[in-house]
Amino acid sequence: MGRSWRSSASIQAIWVIMLVLGVVLSTRMTVEGRKARILESFEYPAISCRGHSASITDYGGVGDGKASNTKAFHDAVNHLSQYGSDGGAQLIVPAGKWLTGSFNLTSHFTLFLHKDAVLLASQDINGWPVIDPLPSYGRGRDAVGGRYISFIFGTNLTDVVITGALWWQQFHKKKLKYTRPYMIEILHSDTIQISNLTLVNSPAWNVHPVYSRNIIVQGVTILAPVTSPNTDGINPGTKIQDCYIVSGDDCVAVKSGWDEYGISYGMPTKQLVIRRLTCISPYSATIALGSEMSGGIQDVRAEDIVAINTESGVRIKTGVGRGGYVKDIYVRGMSLHTMKWAFWITGNYGSHPDTHYDPKAVPAIQNINYMNVVAENVSMAARLEGISGDPFTGICISNATIGLAKKAKKVPWTCTDIEGMTSGVTPPPCGLLPDQGPEKIGMCDFPEDSLPIDAVELKMCSYTTMNHI
Questions:
Q1: What gap in Å lies between CA 166 and CA 183, rounded to an integer?
Q2: CA 364 from centre of chain
Q3: How many degrees, rounded to 5, is the angle at CA 236 between CA 448 and CA 173?
Q4: Is 142 a known active-site residue?
Q5: Which of 43, 182, 293, 351 makes an SS bond possible with 205, Cβ 3.0 to 4.6 Å?
Q6: Superkingdom of this entry's organism (predicted)?
Q7: Least reliable range by pLDDT among 80-89, 132-141, 164-173, 410-419
Q8: Is 72 left (phi over 0), alpha (psi -120 to 50) or beta?
Q9: Furthest C-alpha separation in the chain
Q10: Tell me: the pLDDT tens digits for 191-235?
Q11: pTM of the predicted model, to two decimals?
Q12: 8 Å CB contact between 170 and 137
């Protein structure tokens, strides 16, 4: 129980997942007789630089958007894995459209995509292997049993571009026997970087590092239709910063397991940093804690958060049978525009994986801090609902101005089974959150010490290629 989880056109349209980047710093052309030599140099920041490089074309890859490159990616990763103890290797994906099925990565490995490279995920569902459910979930999220493997599964991902398949239609028609795949999933891993990419239209969770530590998710853009189910942006990481997410579900969803399976697995999500996040999600939260939080969530620090046309700011979701805890949550600096709720804590949320959960397993929600919040066009300031006999305690809100919409609810705050205090909050909060006066406006906590993940420094890595035409 002492482990720590630091941390998911038409009906025939391709599952478009464009993970975009790869920075071209210089391009130079020289004349050599009748041939031109094109020299491209790429530089990108990464946790580790690699001693060996290869192109997907070296393994038979064809970037015409039609030929299957599944074998090429498998062969490339298998071959380059031999350099793990000799400086590692990077696989370069040049400009083009590269159709492929799911593939796994390896340790000490960088997947680098040219800024004009796109990975297209195969639409043949039969070509996606089925793997076991997560042990802290006990079953697939959509259905009992396993789940389709994620499009990219492995470690040390950097600079990726992806496009994908028709999973939502199959899901809505209830034709899928297993849980939908995620875009990128990293399991049981250490020191992973996912950066400078754009993901479009994942079939379910987009970025899902789980049972892992020292995960950096940075400079990521995630785009999903706002009506798409379960397309959570990032679930979760250790440090998430400078990300822009449009989602049909929570932009960042912090989890740690589902009911008795999460309690038994005992791997809490701890020491999570979220900075400079921009979210659009009309039906879900900017940052959600839960509802699968049975392994525990502790020490989450979020600051400089912007939400536009989003259901709620930071939402805590839990219920009877979950057990676990959500505690030591610190949020500083939120700018919210057109929201249903600025603050939402729910103690009656979520289904159960099976009938084996313990109805006496109630969650502990405590030490929740929100400070320096400005919101406009909000339907309701807050909906804060604990559990009868299990009040949520230590809720602190300070220096918050909530501008209500013209058709806002008549009662801006509803509070049940909670305890806490406020200072400098407009409109005036409910009686369970008494105002401590203007002299206490800085009373809510936000730790000033640095977490270990902030000590990780990125190196500047490079790659140079010459093409003769």
A1: 13
A2: 24
A3: 155
A4: no
A5: 182
A6: Eukaryota
A7: 164-173
A8: alpha
A9: 84
A10: 888 888 888 777 777 898 888 888 999 999 898 878 777 777 897
A11: 0.85
A12: no
Q: Which of 249, 250, 259, 417 is catalytic?
A: 249
Q: Which residues does 404 contact at the CB level (< 8 Å), separation at least 6?
A: 377, 378, 379, 381, 412, 427
CA dist 392 and 412 (Å) reads 20
257, two tokens: 């397991």
Q: Please identify which residue in the block is written with the tokens 């894995």.
A: 81
d(CA 388, CA 355): 22
DSSP state string for 441-457: TT-S----SPPGGGGPP
Residue whose pair of structure tokens reads 């052309």 in the numeric block: 29
- Give ∠ CA 270-274-278 in degrees, rounded to 5: 150
Q: Which of 400, 402, 384, 383 is nearest to 392 (CA)?
A: 384
Whether the per-residue pLDDT at 30 is higher than 60: the answer is no
- List the beta strands (DSSP E) in 349-391: 364-385
Q: 3-state class of 44 per DSSP?
A: strand
Pairing of strands 109-113, 89-93: parallel
Percent of the chain with pLDDT over 70: 84
Give the pLDDT confidence of 118-158 residue by residue, as tens digits. 888 887 877 778 877 676 666 556 677 777 788 888 654 54
Range of lowest pLDDT (147-161, 280-294, 413-427):
147-161
* 217 in Cβ contact with 141 (< 8 Å): no
- The pair of structure tokens assigned to 52 is 């060996």
Predicted confidence (pLDDT) at residue 352 exceeds the cutoff of 50: yes
Q: Are 338 and 376 in contact (CB under 8 A)?
A: yes
Closest CA to 365 of 389, 347, 344: 347
Task: Read off the tokens for 296.
Answer: 């525990």
Q: Which long-range contacts (CB under 8 A, 24 or more apart) does 441-445 make?
A: 441/398, 441/399, 442/371, 442/398, 442/399, 443/396, 443/398, 444/369, 444/370, 444/371, 444/396, 444/397, 444/398, 445/330, 445/367, 445/369, 445/396
